[in-house]
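Below is how a single chain appears once it has passed through the pipeline. First comes the sequence as given, then the structure the pipeline wrote out for it. We keep one example in the README because the format questions we get most often are answered faster by looking than by reading.
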Amino acid sequence: MKQQKPSATAGLRGDTSPGAQTGKQAFTSYFSSDIDKIGLYNGNVLLELSILSFPGREIPIDLILSYNSQKWELVDCSGIPCGEYTGGWRITTGFGAPPREMDGVIPIVRRAADLLAGCTSIPQYDLNAYWMDAFGTKHRYKLANIAGSGSCASPVEPSWIDRTLASLDTDASVYYSGSDDQRTGEKITFKNGNVLQMYPTARLTTPNGNYVVREDNSKLPLQDTLGRTITYETNFSISPNTYYRRSTVTDANHALQTYQLNFEAKESGPIVDAGCHRIEQPGEESAHSDGDHHAGRQHTVE
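Resulting structure:
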């Protein structure tokens, strides 16, 4: 296990306070219209644009483009305080994801063992897990006062193996950490009985056994109980500043339909991603989005 020394950045792993919330939070007041919601507590604007939707057995295959207008927050980047933008545009699926990839590819759920102050003999930790759902809502799971090892001067984190963390939100979901250090069997179980398995393959399953499986590279739905598939391609590796993400599905008439999102970087540098600026759907004119989401200003869709 790795050693960890107390630092001023301990616990800065994700801001789930009401003022920092994006997405759809339970028991929160919103002003809503056809495609947008405005959080009355912090003013966050949530837009939802349906790209495609195919009904299925309990779980539809959906692709929705969602946008949150807020917000920058302070997080811990390998022990160094840094900023992270948790809003902007994202392709919405049922699996959820962190706001962005940091330190390379990261799991769906972020985890942090936070050393508690006041050590007298055995180091004590709070285990926190953070998950952002498809609409950008931030969820936090916690297991408090877990004994580590080592000494107060040289504390060692406790193992994450076979831990169950309760939700700090009001959705009654439960996080399970997995049966080994590779997170085998890692999952979130929801109040309605649905299970979101994280590893080795992301899979959303209902109590009746119906499912949707996620494709690892695209992070989008790959196949469901009915055997329907979505093929995915992108030229990001060739052109990371101006690229497309293209999904092809078979419609009810067995015809192939292609949906394409075009991304263009507004700024350069390792912190800033490209923003979606055009949506191409079969038989329709392209929709354009404008604005700089990294500055926290609202996108407009024409």
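The mean pLDDT is 76.

See the next section for the split statistics.
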